[in-house]
Amino acid sequence: MIRYLLVLFVISVAPLNATETYVYAERESGPLELDIHYPEGDAKGPCPVIFWTHGGGWRQGSKVNYKLIGWLLSEGYAIVSINYRLTDVATYPAQWEDCEAAFNWVIENGPAHRLDPNHIVTAGLSAGAHLASLLATRTDHSTPRIRGVLHFYGPADFLQMARYAKKPTDALNTPDAPVFGLLGGPLRENLTLAKEASPLTYLDKSDPPFRIIVGREDSLMTQRQCKRLHDAADKLGIRSSLHEIPGAGHGGKEFNDATRQKLILQFLKSIQP
Predict the structure, then answer these.
(1) Where in the chain are all domains bearing CATH 3.40.50.1820?
(2) Whole-prediction pTM value?
(3) At residue 72, does pLDDT exceed 50?
């Protein structure tokens, strides 16, 4: 009898599943999945959500690459990390369509999975930061669900980048450039699509706050893109902060140290409903 009661006790206090995987869309290339990572402890919810889009130049990476913000699980946040079609499968707007579909899945299904659909922060690094910002600026704001954006060293305005792509031989116009794969051709020949794919195209005063973090040793292009996003948001009256990390490049341990974690937590607490 004592042994039976002990078994019941162990079952009753066992933690909820740490990670759950779901198919959020079906494409010709196959199913697209998202992972829900739950906060540490007995997270009964509804949990605030970090909606994570991975980096990799839109041509590599996957939903498992969320470690930059994985520590937020210990702060009570759930992380939804998604796969989206890479550029070897489909060009833009496929990536946007996938992110929007995954976001809508969270809105529709979140309550059944202990997620708060009215407290979502979009986040990503590099190409993922571009998609996170695109979600926040292009998504309908009739019901404000996106509380903020964590933008780690990503592009925001491809038309500005096109200033450095005037010649066919310029790097941004070559197949090796990630933006070539995203747009399906040279940047200089795809300006209409470049504008459509740029978060700054949709930026308006109803957009949520931004915390933008970039390394001072990153490429000048990336630094300019981050500053342009910050300046444009600030001009519209959107609360935005641009944090530059001395000595940091395009990623690295500096983005996940105690100083940056404190900055991120301050931002997240400032946008709580």
Answers:
(1) 14-157+199-270
(2) 0.92
(3) yes
In tens, the pLDDT along 90-143 reads 999 999 999 999 999 999 999 999 999 999 999 999 999 999 999 999 987 545
**Phi, psi of 46, rounded to the nearest 5 degrees:** -75, 135
Q: Is-contact 194 225, C-beta < 8 A? A: no
Token match 């969320």: residue?
A: 66
Q: How far apart are CA 254 and CA 258, in angstroms?
A: 9
CA–CA gap between residue 58 and residue 56 (Å, rounded): 5
Residues paired with 243 in a beta bridge: 213
Q: Which CATH superfamily is domain 14-157+199-270 in?
A: Alpha/Beta hydrolase fold, catalytic domain (3.40.50.1820)
Q: How many CB atoms lie within 10 A of CB 178?
A: 18
* Dihedral (CA of 178, 179, 183, 188) sign: negative
Report whether 14 contacts 7 (CB < 8 A). Answer: no
Strand bridging mode 47-53 / 210-215: unpaired
